[in-house]
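Changelog note: in this version the structure field was regenerated for every chain. One regenerated record is shown below for reference.
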Amino acid sequence: MNSQVPEGKRITSFQPGRQYMYSIMLKAYDDSGYTFATPQNGLSMMVNGSAVNARNITVGNDGKTLFATVIKTIRPQQVKAIDVVEVNDATLNFKDGDKPVFTGKVPDGANYKYRCEWWQQDSKTGVVSTEPQWGSGIYENHITAFKAGKTYHYGVYLSAHYGYKFTSATRLKINGKFVNYQRPEEDIGNDPDNMGTMWVYTDLAMTPAASGHIRDTEEKPTETPDAEDNPSETSDTKGNSEKTSDTNGSPAETTDTYGKLAKDTGNTGKLTENADAKGKSTKAVMAKGKSPKAADASSPQTGDIGSLTLWVMLLAASCIAVGGMLLYIFR
């Protein structure tokens, strides 16, 4: 039928903003012996469950053809690309023995719809959030509880609203952070810049431990030790680490400016080893209850040496007096 339409008037693709009308032509078999009745004689017509207006139905004079015009009018919209997709409040941390829980959702007013989430251990083992209503046949083995030492990967399924599409440049954000993702192999043949659905495997992975969880993509928080209970660690100007002991006398390690390691046993009166400025080891016994200190060539000296001459003169005078007395006695 399309071959009868002049080439210049053929519709090869729908253009946004233009109006298109859908019509149908039916023809009775020549040798069937049947003809179409007219709407005046009780003919009715249904398309996709909806009745066609009788005024739009025309039957040919021979009763062999039927035309139903303007059944549906459409005006395609300009399809817009979705730049960023967000899934928030997703539960991504589990411990050994925990059952899968799915809490992800998309923002209100988004141009796409949340369909489901899933965890996958391998191509045959996983669990979909919509089971058993939908997706229960995707995996042969279903995850009922997470197991320690096993690694699980997180995936999500979304669909674009009418007038919108996903492209190869669409970015995915989970719980406020951008993540990488891959499409399944069956989607590779489709146009990556004109996708109505987004079924993707993310790089979020989770390995439960017996007492807690380990996520491959999780950023570990920086911990600050308690100064009263735990050794503290600092770095010198050359980037060498330094560990000092706490007030309870726990062993500590320090590093001098040459990066030489010095060990200190704390305030217990036991032998300590410290590194001097050239990295050589010196030993000293520290008095119990006092903190070890490295020798310092610039330490202030104690004692008064300013009146040494006076003491020499007094000693000389004493010697002369004693000598005079001896001469007087033996004279």
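Spot check on this record: Residues 308-330 form the longest helix (23 residues). Residues 215-303 have pLDDT under 50 and may be disordered.
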